[in-house]
């Protein structure tokens, strides 16, 4: 029997992106407004929902600096061990069922330095003993934050091939069939109930886009914010089942960023925000505090990561020309690289960047209650969600490895990102991660342009691999900053970007 439950257990790390007006008082003190241009910022929310959009959103300036805030110190080596070996998710598949279905992992998907329980598991799974003394296996952070690339595991690379198109709840039922020990059955029932609770809220129409924000919201809705106790029935209105697509940011960018998430909403203590993966099964404040004690180490490990180097030769003369074009056209938002690097930590308003605004704007309209839950909860004790109507201009280190591009993964290559008229409206790729799947000239994934979208694709399995930029939240418009460049300048910028 081979069951595909690699994705099951889904730790949510991520959090709601809703846009709410800043709270009264000065919770916003850390935000420095560079220049005010309210007239140029029509209410983007109105494009999606006139009635519900808060009128204040129009005041978001084009560029806002998010200032860094103090973080707890930690030990990166302890953090690596904790990330891979510890039970921060709190429940999982009983080990006997896991062993029966999965066996040992091939060597190329294992990671070194793991403890004896975990040595034979794939990088994305962790085996541990739960508080009820049952040994279980659950997905860890690397399910979404690790990926194969060119035959090797890259820790911290967002998984752009994860498949959330299935119904995870059905798979959860299958696991129960092979269990006989009462303690394992009880443990499976807990895990299975959680998975079934969230499965309608994490089902995506295509492979490769991530539902973590909605997943977190679904879990928040079932928890008391103060005691963290789980409620079988939701305690507030559940999130929508139409899930906005998100591309998982690379962890090695974190050391340069003062906030977490595409919309810059993760503020205050980042280690605390990262551990919201625990909202799947950690049901008491005492257990959450024990996890919180080692999460500064996990964060320290994340901050120690470096991007992988581009695996082919680059032309230093062209790259240097590209650096100059980049400095003139791109550094304002994305900073400078190399010795004495600078990074402005800008949150760019949706009107200024022009990319699909739904992630930044839509959730505010529908989901402010989840921001409120977090900020009132135990998790909000030293951290905050402060979503605004814009996207972070991310650092571009290792950008060659992180295709597809933009917050929703709507653009397959850097060449298409920099010349907006060439971006495909409908496209598919293999989801393979070998260099044979990779386009080293356009920098990104090889892909096939298709002449129709989901509405005209009757075959369900073909739909699952068809990126349709006309779906809500999947738009590929905006970020036209490369358009005014000559094609030679664009090629030079791409050559330079390979070297970051
Ligand atoms: C189900 C998939 C999933 C899992 C599991 C997951 N994450 Fe995430 N993570 C995401 C997504 C998606 C985002 C981006 C969300 C956004 O910006 O809206 C994200 C964002 C982050 C960020 C912020 C990155 C940035 O530059 O803004 C950090 C740090 C992070 N996750 C750490 C973790 C840790 C640590 C764990 C495990 C405890 C974890 N994540 C588990 C999907 C996941
Ligand atoms: C006004 C600010 C601004 C300027 C100028 C700008 N960018 Fe961006 N860039 C952004 C923002 C904001 C995003 C994220 C948008 C989104 O994902 O919706 C982004 C995203 C990107 C990404 C994709 C990142 C990823 O991980 O998917 C690349 C690559 C990029 N920019 C390159 C460039 C280059 C090259 C230039 C110059 C030709 C440039 N940018 C100019 C603000 C800017």
What ligand species are in this complex?
Answer: heme C
Share in β-strands:
5-15%
Strand order of the largest sheet: 1-2-9-11
> What is the averaged pLDDT score?
88
In one word, what is the shape?
Answer: globular
Low-confidence stretches: 1-55
Helix count?
A: 15
Q: Can you summarize the main beta sheet?
A: 4 strands, antiparallel
Question: How far apart are the first and last residues' alpha carbons, in Å?
Answer: 44 Å
Q: Structural class, from helix and strand content?
A: alpha+beta
Q: Count the strands?
A: 16
Instruction: Supply Rg.
Output: 22 Å
The proportion of residues forming helix, as a percent range, comes to 25-40%
- What is the subunit organization of this protein? single chain
Which descriptors would you attach to this protein?
single chain; 500 residues; alpha+beta; 4-stranded antiparallel beta sheet; 3-stranded antiparallel beta sheet; 15 helices; globular; binds heme C
């Amino acid at each position: 029997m081979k069951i595909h439950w690699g994705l099951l257990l889904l730790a949510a790390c991520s959090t709601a992106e809703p846009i709410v007006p800043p709270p009264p008082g000065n919770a916003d003190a850390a935000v420095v407004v560079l220049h005010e241009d309210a007239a140029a910022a029509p209410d983007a929310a109105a494009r999606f929902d006139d009635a519900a959009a808060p009128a204040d959103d129009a005041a978001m300036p084009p560029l806002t600096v998010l200032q860094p805030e103090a973080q707890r110190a930690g030990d990166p080596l302890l953090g690596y061990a904790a990330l891979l070996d510890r039970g921060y998710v709190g429940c999982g598949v009983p080990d006997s069922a896991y062993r029966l279905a999965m066996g040992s992992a091939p060597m190329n998907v294992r990671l070194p330095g793991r403890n004896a329980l975990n040595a034979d598991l794939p990088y994305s799974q962790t085996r541990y003993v739960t508080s009820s003394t049952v040994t279980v296996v659950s997905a860890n952070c690397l399910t979404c934050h690790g990926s194969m690339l060119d035959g090797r595991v890259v820790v911290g690379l967002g998984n752009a091939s994860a498949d959330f198109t299935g119904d995870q709840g059905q798979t959860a039922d299958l696991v129960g069939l092979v269990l006989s020990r009462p303690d394992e059955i009880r443990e499976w029932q807990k895990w299975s109930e959680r998975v079934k609770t969230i499965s309608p809220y994490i089902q995506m129409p295509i492979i490769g886009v991530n539902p973590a924000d909605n997943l977190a919201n679904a879990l928040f809705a079932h928890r008391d914010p103060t005691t963290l106790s789980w409620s079988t029935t939701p305690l507030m209105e559940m999130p929508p089942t139409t899930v906005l697509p998100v591309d998982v940011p690379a962890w090695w960018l974190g050391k340069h960023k003062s906030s977490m998430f595409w919309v810059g909403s993760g503020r205050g203590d980042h280690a605390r925000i990262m551990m919201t993966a625990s909202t799947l099964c950690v049901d008491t404040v005492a257990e959450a505090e024990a996890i919180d004690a080692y999460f500064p180490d996990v964060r320290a490990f994340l901050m120690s990561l470096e991007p992988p180097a581009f695996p082919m030769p680059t032309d230093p003369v062209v790259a240097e020309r590209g650096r100059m074009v980049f400095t003139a056209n791109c550094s304002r938002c994305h900073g400078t690289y190399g010795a004495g690097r600078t990074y402005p930590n800008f949150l760019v308003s949706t009107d200024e960047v022009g990319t699909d605004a739904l992630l930044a704007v839509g959730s505010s309209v529908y989901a402010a209650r989840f921001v409120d839950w977090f900020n009132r909860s135990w998790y909000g004790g030293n951290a905050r969600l402060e979503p605004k109507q814009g996207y972070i201009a991310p650092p571009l280190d290792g950008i060659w490895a992180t295709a597809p591009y933009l917050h929703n993964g709507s653009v397959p290559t850097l060449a298409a990102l920099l010349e907006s008229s060439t971006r495909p409206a409908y496209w598919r790729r293999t989801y393979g991660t070998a260099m044979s799947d990779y386009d080293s000239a356009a920098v990104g994934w090889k892909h096939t342009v298709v002449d129709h979208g989901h509405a005209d694709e009757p075959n369900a399995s073909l739909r699952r691999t068809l990126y349709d930029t006309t779906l809500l939240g999947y738009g590929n418009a905006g970020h036209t900053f490369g358009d005014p460049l000559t094609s030679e300048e664009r090629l030079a910028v791409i050559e330079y970007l390979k070297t970051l």
